């Protein structure tokens, strides 16, 4: 496994006040450690943000030449990918408007500039739209006319549409080239609940939308408060599956930073998040994790939400395990399993969650970005699929074998923190 020190230097460089003193510790790109670090940067979504931060701080010259070249080439390829996706995004929005359908953009392009000042720094994989349940069939007809299809259309849950797969995916694919397969995720709620956790979200988001423009493309997005709520819930949902793109936390941190003095916004966020203790706990976890990883400054206006949502157990995990978990290589780490009881109160549901994490279903080992197809497969596809499954299984088994040690560390950390709390009170 890649040593933690190199990733820690990346975290330091991505802070609002970057510390680039450790760039000399980055391993040579031609070495195995260097290639693994670059892959982690790509998969975490941090590669182009890292380059941009170094350029803005005048520190990019401290990167070895081969590193600069690799990152700059990625930025150029991503710029072409962005233009290609913008064209498709514009085509979809125009089609929705022509049918009188209100399709609200979630995530993606709607995050500019409040979460990401430059869309060329984001690596986007799909399009997400929020629609009224009554418009689901109409949107499905439009997507079908553009070559998208879905194995399951739902008016109550998320529906995933993809175009035919024109390329056999593999672990060596370039993430920054124009898409071989497009994907549209159709949502009917700000956040999908799972069988373990019921999300408490505002039901009037479609009435709170705002017009947005990006590179001449006009569309509608959520209000800024709802966008923040949606991003926090989205990050938590993926973290509870064991892994999330760290760029999502970096973007949440950017919003916290640039709107730090906007008290009205944070009052609105608290109002839109709702009063359920579980929702406050989720927000406390995501925002505090963001602070730990990127040293984000938390606005005064939202600190009450963190105080009300934080628990001693969460605090212990954040103190002793959060950075290690955040820095884990894809597909993630199981060490956040110890937090399950903080978010899943029902014991039976919690056991189901444990089983789903320890014994993932086959769909979680898919090499495709979208749902499986029933069309004939080539021999190359089967070879790549089994290579992918073997890799995922190997990483998962290695992580599972480490669980007893993680449990031991967890119990020691809990005991130490509780002892410290007792001493403080005495």
List the helices and strands and how they pair.
Layout: H1 4-13, H2 32-44, H3 47-56, H4 65-98, E1 104-106, E2 127-130, H5 136-145, E3 159-162, E4 183-187, E5 210-214, E6 217-221, H6 224-239, H7 246-258, H8 263-273, H9 277-294, H10 303-309, H11 312-320, H12 322-326, H13 340-343, H14 347-358, H15 379-401, H16 403-425
Parallel strand pairs: 2-4
Antiparallel strand pairs: 1-2, 3-4, 5-6
How would you describe the overall organization of this protein?
It contains 16 helices and six strands. A hairpin with a 2-residue loop joins β5 (210-214) and β6. The two termini are 43 Å apart. The protein is an alpha+beta fold and 426 residues long. Mean pLDDT is 89; it is low at 363-375. Among the domains are: 1-63, no CATH class; 79-222, Beta Polymerase, domain 2. It is globular, with a radius of gyration of 22 Å. The strands form two sheets. It has a four-stranded mixed sheet with strand order 1-2-4-3, covered by helices on one side. The protein has a two-stranded antiparallel ribbon with strand order 5-6.
Short recap of the structure:
By secondary structure, this protein is an alpha+beta fold. Among the domains are: 1-63, no CATH class; 79-222, Beta Polymerase, domain 2, CATH 3.30.460. The protein has helices at residues 4-13, 32-44, 47-56, 65-98, 136-145, 224-239, 246-258, 263-273, 277-294, 303-309, 312-320, 322-326, 340-343, 347-358, 379-401, 403-425, and strands spanning 104-106, 127-130, 159-162, 183-187, 210-214, 217-221.
